[in-house]
Amino acid sequence: MAAVLLAAGCGAIPGSVTSVDDVAFDQRLAIPPLAESEVVDGVRTFSLTAQEGTTSFAPAIDGETETWGFDGAHLGPTLRAERGERVAVDVANDLGEATSVHWHGMHLPAAMDGGPHQEIEPGGTWHPTWEIDQAGATLWYHPHPHGETEEHVYRGLAGMFILDDDATRAADLPSEYGVDDVPVIVQDKVFDDEGQLELTDDGGEPGTLGSVVMANGTVGAYQEVTTERVRLRLLNGSTARSYTFGFPDRPFDLVATDGGLLEAPLELDHVRLAPGERAEVVVEMEPGETTRLASTDTDLGSVAAPFAMGGNDAFDVLELRAAGELAPSPEPAWEPSRHAEADALDPAAATVTRTFELDERRINGERMDMGRIDEVATVGDTEVWEVRSTVPMPHSFHVHDVQFRVLSIDGDAPPPELAALKDTVYLEPRRTYRLLLRFEDYTDEAVPYMYHCHMLRHEDEGMMGQFLVVAPGSEARPGPVRGSH
Ligand code: C2O
Ligand code: CU
Ligand code: CU
């Protein structure tokens, strides 16, 4: 099967590739360093500089590849903060073009969100600050410049932002960063003959599907495991590809999704992640053995030509090599956070329903316009968003500022892996996803948040809309942005 696919060649069936037996897994997994921070007047302050550089992806790729990164040539450090803390980030842009830094999954004021309205000119700086007030979770950050997000992320601008709270701190979960609590940013790339990153722009759907899959920028990565259990914080940081992660020889426990912990560990064989989604999984090892995190056949739903959308592709991503002796790890377990009740979303409280229909590039018949507000929500309101892809192609729906609950899919309860908080969800074509969300704390009459497809080509080409969160009684209405050009 694999041989047939290989013989058919990537040229014959774009995107239909397999690297399961292609790569020697002999490169130590790069672990993004934890970002340093300083607490100044009670504010935990980080700094990030977007810059250009070169990276060696040897031995998979010869020579030096031009890449972009934060505080380095590729990807960025892991930021980490605690619920209740006030944070600030001194962001500098040393690129030759404007960029922005968006805090994906973060609840924060719209002006701090880092979307297309907060672009930073070349040589410029930006100083967002906000208070962390949400459940412990694996979030991430990446650029969001208008129409250029795909390229900026693809060149390497992305990093994790881990939040801790009372529940994640006290949980019986592997938690030594880089040792048994391992960030795994999965991205696929295309390299040209000179070893440079290629962003295929042939109008093909669903965007660039690469045959080289890397974890934290390492191709053919292995991680030495020294404990009985290891927790992987999986982030699909790819621009277009959805994955189905699992291990060929064992199940794992899903412990958290985008917005935080599940109610209890959920044993699964695999979990599908669309671009932008995260999953924390805990896997058990025996002394001396190895296994590999892999992505195999991804069920994209009723997509036309799944082979062309990467649905048939298979990749090994990361080899886990257990030492001869393993330190004991507790069985995964945790108690709810003391914030759990306040955080909970109540479907009975929903007072507003909105519908969002996605076609090839439009949402509700419109393409993104920075000068147009599409929706206006009132702070304090709980809403239901009914989201549906009307076309047989993959979409990954993301909402800024909030973590939502998937109430139902075509009227049925969602599968258990979609039961916890989410900020991004894969939309199987022609199914209706009812999302429950609540807008809290922050209002702004002028600066909007975004909702969009997280397949970045789709987003850049207009599959995005803007919403304001305003105070009760506000006169703000959908339409042209106030004071916009
Ligand atoms: Cu991760 Cu609006 O994006
Ligand atoms: Cu986001
Ligand atoms: Cu899309």
Q: What do these coordinates show?
A:
There is one protein chain. With 485 residues, the protein is mainly beta. The chain folds into three domains: 144 residues, Cupredoxins -  blue copper proteins (Immunoglobulin-like, Sandwich), CATH 2.60.40.420; 147 residues, Immunoglobulin-like (Sandwich); 134 residues, Immunoglobulin-like. The protein contains five helices and 34 strands. Strands 14-13-12-16-21-18-19 form a seven-stranded mixed β-sheet, with no helix packed on it. A six-stranded mixed β-sheet has the order 1-15-23-22-17-20, with no helix packed on it. Strands 2, 3, 4, 6, 8 and 9 form a six-stranded mixed β-sheet that branches. It is globular, with a radius of gyration of 21 Å. Bound molecules: CU-O-CU linkage (C2O) and copper (II) ion (CU) (2 copies). The site of one copper (II) ion (CU) has 4 residues, from β7.
